[in-house]
Design brief:
The structure is a homodimer of 386-residue chains. By secondary structure, chain A is of the alpha/beta class. Chain A has 13 helices and 16 strands. Chain A is globular and about 70 Å long. The first copy, chain A, binds a DNA duplex (30 and 30 nucleotides) through helix 1, helix 2 and helix 3.
DNA sequence: AAAACTTTGTTTAACCAATATACAAAGTGA
DNA sequence: TCACTTTGTATATTGGTTAAACAAAGTTTT
């Protein structure tokens, strides 16, 4: 059954519009909201009153007059409740406690020594419980948990396939919801990172964003029209297995010449590196010391990284690409060769309005994005398309 | 100013819902529509009455009783008006006169000898005028013109760049609207083809579809969530310039190893073909006659075609890929090698629900899709997202 | 300092689309 | 013929937005 229109829907649309207008712009008066949205002043007053009852909007006293009565300043009550954003990495579990604006209230981190589900689930439980205990008292309490995982996730929060964890069809959402009895959102780590950068990083006012996470592999989160694009069964963005050498190195996925073999940490295995370094951090240290082999390694990777980016640019035509993940820390060494290749290889019209940036949220992008998903699930977002 | 909710919007949403329900399913009663949409019977009656006044819905007399009063069968009045769908190709101009259901009422075709705008525009004008004259008398007359062009088009119908025509920043929509005073929709030929296949070809009930048009180059039309995805400035889908050989053959776009150099008609130039054939039709004839060189040529192209498809599959995760364009006529020779590569190289979870099909609309896909765009522009489509 | 003007936010009455409910019309089956 | 089903319409109610008037609280002009 499709969505039909009635008065309740109208109210939902307008209330949602007002809430998100306040959330994004902060410090608005009712009169200003009426102007910005086109809604009648009376409608704004009524719905703001409801949002105040819901504890989602607060009145912060009078503002500056512009020649008449002083406006009553409203702002979004980011502390109406808290959310937990978590990232499950191969060697580490990290999480944040956030308010509804993505501000980090508390951080937690613990190493992950094994990958079997009981062990990992136990570690997640412990960390979540710790953050819940540490949460300040708010009206709604803990509103939800968002988790970014290194693998494909379907629309029911089932982790279909996470090769680096050895997981297959793991019902992570179900397990966590059963344990904590609050909504849980599971998503691919790159998708979460894309949401984080879109909302709290570089992506303000961007409608088409590509977040490319390069670490032990490469994954992309695709934002289209301001929203996450997940593909037909929820796992688009597996761009690491894009072929950039038709008859290149065989990959574990069954294909050959996959991008991530040349432009992620997997490249270290292939390179004839005469250095005792197989991790990005170490390699960066060598490069910083002026080691030619390390510099060369990054230069080659940067070039390959740019080739893959070019393909994504030609296909998706994004406004902004944000590069995140462990490799983004090697920006100093990767950026030059990468930008050079992109400049040389991209179609002229794509170049014009494209910006390629490195993550501003750094390693927290995925956590913050995952928390944002949980917050949005609570806040809702009803709107009309023409 | 954003879209706000009021009663007019509610009516618009519901009227649109009813109209498109009738359009897609045909032969429905008011009672059945009420069940399908969830709208109240009275609401359906009222809005159907308005749609009848608008001449968009007709009553076709009583249907079969299922144990009670006979239903009154409604159907979409596809002949409320006509649209023109046109495709501008490098060597040919083709167009169709369609009803609002994409049924072709009349076809036209003429060779294109030059590419300068005055000549092409003159040819377009003549063809459109002929079709308008040939149109049957309908309530609304000619509702719009849709044109698919071999190049990038922005949201204002400006042809930004069409290398095969030598066009740059050509205001095609403006010119046609000025001339004919009806709405004109310009789009990339692959985008139009994607819409055609989605609505009138293989794509029924498909939400994520990729239409890959292979001819003198390769372009893709991307349907996401049942809607055309155009990228940030309206020209996503330039997948032909996806690099599949990092240090491959230099391309006119400035890059190297572009997919279309290996898997479109451009490959003929590169191949050491010892045949006097440089066009697909001729080559197919040779292959049909058992010529080994021709078969080999197609087999290689099929393999490369599959490699590019694999990249698209991993990135977009579509439910259905439809292959169109001139090369789709070589299906017999391309399909085997192509499917083999895809089967071997695609990630296991992507394979499960993916179907790769050849165009059913053939060379008419883009025209019919362009006409559909014009029809949809008239009919409107208002809906809600949660 | 008083008067005139501005701006903000609320109150009021009117409007109108969807809905539930009752009802009329037109069929089936025993 | 009678009981039941199904279809489609009529009626009163509900509840959201809106325009317009208004009250409140400023600033600017005289």
């Amino acid at each position: 059954m499709k969505v039909t229109g009635d008065q309740a829907l109208v109210k939902k649309i307008n209330k949602s519009l007002i809430l998100h207008t306040i959330r994004k712009h902060a410090e608005l008066s009712r009169a200003r909201i009426s102007e910005m949205t086109g809604l009648n002043k009376a409608t704004v007053s009524n719905l703001v009153a409801e949002l105040q009852e819901d504890q989602l909007v607060l009145e912060a006293g009078p503002g500056e007059s512009s020649g008449g009565r002083k406006p009553l300043i409203l702002h979004f009550n980011a502390m109406a409740g808290c959310v937990i954003g978590m990232e499950l990495r191969v060697k580490q579990l990290t999480a944040v406690l956030c308010d509804l604006n993505g501000s980090v209230l508390r951080e937690a981190e613990s190493p992950l020594l094994q990958h079997d589900l009981p062990y990992v689930f136990e570690a997640m439980q412990t960390m979540i419980a710790t953050l819940i205990d540490a949460a300040p008292l708010t009206h709604y309490g803990i509103l939800g948990i968002g988790v970014g995982v290194p693998g494909m996730v379907d629309e029911h929060g089932l982790v279909l396939f996470a090769p680096n964890l050895g997981w297959e069809k793991t019902p992570l959402r179900e397990l966590l919801e059963e344990k904590f009895s609050i909504p849980v959102i599971i998503d691919n780590e790159a998708n979460s990172g894309a949401l984080g950068e879109l909302n709290f990083g570089r992506g303000e006012d961007v409608r088409h964003l590509l977040y490319v996470s390069a670490g032990s592999g490469i994954g992309s989160g695709i934002i289209i029209g301001g929203e996450l694009y997940k593909g037909s069964r929820g796992y688009a963005g597996e761009t690491g297995h894009m072929c950039i050498e038709a008859e290149g190195t065989p990959c574990s996925c069954g294909s050959r010449g996959c991008w991530e073999l040349y432009a992620s940490e997997k490249a270290y295995d292939l390179a004839a590196l005469e250095l005792p370094a197989y991790h990005t951090r170490e390699l960066i240290r060598y490069a910083d010391q002026g080691n030619a082999a390390a510099c060369q390694q990054f230069a080659v990777m940067g070039t390959y990284f740019g080739i893959g980016l070019t393909n994504l640019i030609n296909s998706f035509n994004p406004e902004l690409i944000v590069i995140g993940g462990a490799l983004s820390e090697a920006r100093e060494w990767l950026e030059g060769p990468m930008q050079q290749v992109v400049a040389r290889r991209t179609l002229p019209y794509h170049k014009q309005q494209l910006e390629i940036a490195f993550s501003t949220l750094g390693s927290r992008a995925a956590m913050i994005g995952a928390g944002f998903s949980a917050a949005m699930h609570f806040l809702g977002h009803t709107r009309v398309m023409m």
